[in-house]
Amino acid sequence: MQELVFPPPVAPTLPVRGLSARLPVRRIFCAGRNYAAHALELGAEAGRSAPFFFTKSPSALAQSGETIPYPPGTRNYQYELELVLCLGSHAFRVSESEAVAAVYGYACGLDMTRRDLQRALRAAGQPWDLGKDVEASAVVAEITPAADFGVPDGQRIWLSVDDELRQDAHLSDMLCSPMALIAELSKFYHLAPGDLIFTGTPAGVAPLAPGARIRGQIEGLTPVEVTIGEPE
């Protein structure tokens, strides 16, 4: 057995509805501006020919129900509620119809964003990493197995902050469907069990303050909840 300088990090995991076993997370992909109204509120064009993606480190994963700190380096920390696809099998160069078989389950997720940094980096033509790949910024609820959820289609997706409704749309409002996102990603990556795909957020994003309580819901899935703690 090869000797290591220090112990390797333990893979983060997520709970699965109805099971004591947990799902290990391998990678986190995120689709950008996949709802037209959200693209417009960010000052971008509403339509495009193909989806685009960014990534978050697995270490960015946080569990629903936690209190996460307001992160350093920002004065504009925002929520984005999203449907998360949890893969359970390999997918490489698959079609949309083939992509369905790769999905193990679905979950509600929050793509937390340092919006001021994202905007500044985008304006400078630089990568968004400091704005998006933030510690505890990928908050994911309990996974619902695909057989218990059905097909993502017209289900309602909505989010409240301190019990005030902020986002309200339907999964059918996506510019690129969940299976189209899998098919597109599989052109460039050997997707594998444990990969998560955040599918984009509806309009209604806004800054948060310490103490804010966020609750995001999608019909048929376990809600995702998080409280914003004090700045570090």
From TrEMBL:
Pfam families per record: FAA_hydrolase
One GO molecular-function annotation for this sequence?
fumarylpyruvate hydrolase activity
List residues of the Fumarylacetoacetase-like C-terminal domain. 28-228
Q: Which Gene3D superfamilies match?
A: Fumarylacetoacetase-like, C-terminal domain (3.90.850.10)
User: InterPro entries of this UniProt entry?
Assistant: Fumarylacetoacetase-like_C, Fumarylacetoacetase_C_sf
UniProt keyword list: Hydrolase, Metal-binding
Is rRNA-binding found in the keyword set? Answer: no
Return the EC number. 3.7.1.20
Q: What class of enzyme is it?
A: hydrolase
The identity of this protein, by name, is Fumarylpyruvate hydrolase
- Organism, by scientific name, is Pseudochelatococcus lubricantis
